[in-house]
Design goal:
- This protein has one domain (10-192).
- It is globular and about 45 Å long.
- The protein has one helix and 13 strands.
- Strands 1, 2, 3, 4, 5, 6, 7, 8, 9, 10 and 13 form an eleven-stranded mixed sheet that branches.
- The protein is mainly beta and 193 residues long.
Length: 193
């Protein structure tokens, strides 16, 4: 076994879906899920849902079973990337939640999230084109002022949906956007060092 001496700080699964008003158009809804096995504050789950607002901005709801992990994932990762970026954690609703994860890849990755007065379901189906990405830095992702590098395995999806209280959020996936094969993918074995 070849061992890299870089210390892992975060180890996760991290699927993401962005839905658009039209092909290659404006994002109108998105979901990302962090199933964290290792972090500086321990393991847990974080699900972020972004929805476009009529004002032209968006709002982020953050669901978690570990409040410190939810804050850490947001401040270390999410606030860097559209459409989830927000200026302050205080602008985000952080809600206690319970999670159930079903993974039967490449067929399905499903997350059910239950919080006070809300049931969320995020699904990624027909995972294909799985590839391993070598370690690389991304955006300005830092932990304790140290630039982090990520190494992971990504599988792009042919289908994805987001349901809130049984109702699907409007929008459609997009293909060939931002150098990605599709706007929905499942990231496995994601390690930030």
């Amino acid at each position: 076994m070849v061992q890299n001496q870089t210390q892992p700080i975060f180890c996760n699964e991290n699927p993401l879906s962005i839905l658009y008003a039209e092909a290659a158009g404006t994002p109108i809804a998105a979901v990302t899920f962090w199933r964290s096995f290792l972090s500086p504050v321990g393991s847990g789950h974080v699900l972020a849902v972004w929805r476009a607002q009529e004002s032209g901005t968006g709002s982020v709801d953050l669901f978690t079973d570990h409040q410190e992990l939810g804050k850490l994932i947001f401040t270390t990762f999410l606030h860097h990337w559209p459409p989830f970026h927000q200026e302050r954690l205080s602008d985000v609703a952080l809600q206690e939640a319970h999670f159930t994860v079903e993974a039967d890849l490449p067929r399905l990755y499903r997350v059910a999230c239950t919080a006070a007065g809300i049931d969320l379901l995020a699904e990624w189906r027909a995972v294909r084109s799985v590839s391993r990405h070598e370690a690389h830095t991304h955006a300005d992702v830092r932990y304790n002022d140290v630039l982090l590098a990520v190494e992971n395995t990504v599988g792009f999806c042919d289908q994805a949906r987001i349901l809130v209280n049984g109702q699907p959020l409007a929008g459609q996936m997009c293909y060939g956007v931002d150098s990605w094969e599709s706007s929905a993918y499942v990231t496995l074995c994601e390690t930030w060092s």
